[in-house]
Amino acid sequence: MKLSDKDIIKCLECGLIEINPLNQESQIQPASVDLRLGKGLKAISHMQFPNGQWGNAPIYPSKKVEYEDKRFMVVNPGEFVLGTTIEYIKIPNGLGATVEGRSSVGRQGLFVENAGWIDPGFEGQITLEFFNATKNPWHLEEGMRICQITFETLTSCATPYNGKYQGQKGTTGGALYKDRIIYKS
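Above: the chain's sequence. Below: its structure in token form.
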């Protein structure tokens, strides 16, 4: 069951869910919380893999997108970049969460995702994936409401999240190379 605004506020007030910083008046929606864009983007379209292997840590070349005037970042047409939220999130064992782009942003051709699901027990800033599907540059402003998080109750959870992204801060690149892949013949 998804949590409503009343449920989210109760969970925040008793410390079950933590979102810092948070402005309840402007960020809490009827069944979600708007999250804002943090500093810095990493351009994935320029990412390289040593020896051409997905099993190695990717190298993000110097096209780490910096603020042009300390407020705006540019996502060029057809470009795929990573970003982060300002907010640091802590999710308890009995809840899971989903992060999706805001409709107002998506309807203008910027797709925002974070691979969707956030496991119970996760804490950290949320790394976001952006794809500019338009023919024009997208100017992102630090602090803009860029995505939304929803929470849902779980029937049970034996093992909370303790994976490779636990406690992440800032824009965090992919760690697929840390997965243990088992091949069967």
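The chain has one domain: 5-172.
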